[in-house]
Amino acid sequence: MIFHRASASMHRRNGFTLVExxxxxxxxxxxxxxxxxxxxxxxxxxxxxxxxxxxxxxxLAFHNxxxxxxxxxxGWNISADLNIQGWSLQLLPYLxxxxxxDKYDPRAPAFNEAAAAGFNAAAVTGNLEVIQxxxxxxxxxxxxxxxxxxxxxxxxxxxxxLPPVELxxxxxxxxYSATAGIRGAYASLAYGANPPPSRSGVLWETVPGGRTxxxxxxxxxxxxxxxxxxxxxxxxxxxxxxxxxxxxxxxxYGGTQGGGWGDALHGDHWPQGSLYDGSLGxxxxxxxxxxxxxxxxxxxxxxxxxANFLMxxxxxxxxxxxxxxxxxAALMTAAxxxxxxxx
Length: 343
Fold this sequence. Notes:
By secondary structure, the chain is an alpha+beta fold.
């Protein structure tokens, strides 16, 4: 009997009281809270690495294009009959996308009104299907999940000088935008009273009566390691103010964002900057990275602290959002003659 009681007592001591169980749960909760940020940081580091690799792949494609044709592609070009093309389409053969490239007919543009404008209807249909094809090379894993975007933009929004025509299309997501040049509003902040002789980037545009030569390495007078070619501008067609979508701005400007890899708007980005809360302001602003993703406003990523940029030499640099205005503007121009210093 005595032995039996001792065994029962020992058996009871092997269990957990409610207090002990709550303490264990609390400890596990604290450990999860401590580990979760580390897990999220590791995941973001992996996404950022993939984003960097995408840009390196694009850089290799740009240079293979240059080796083959003697120059880089135009940021975008348009003919008098509204045949409009962007830089990304021209890189398809150099991104192991021969099948898509063969399907795309450069004699016709990719917008819904093209057939009515006199272009071959079958070619237009095929081209629209091409730009609706998601391609991993143009998508940063850190971006939002939008895949297909609808655009409805007046043609004169591209400042072509041609009569305004409403153009519409649907495009697969593209998170990397051409660095076309610095808009005057940001240049005034960056340079003060001493603007450079040229505010153009390396991927310039061509319009009827405009440039006829495509950009070459020799045209990057400021040095290929000191000049941007492509930068992250995520989130289109939504318009972001910091990390939140602004419904009003999206309704007003979403159709002109240029967030598809195969649309011409993807090659027309002359940022003017924004205010630090992401507001557009009346005349630009000092914030150029991660405040607003608006086309003609700023570059934008979901990486903390900055955004990735492809340089003209094929390297990729992570540019902090705190970069000084003159330095950023100097890196944007291809022949401004500036010395950007450390960045």
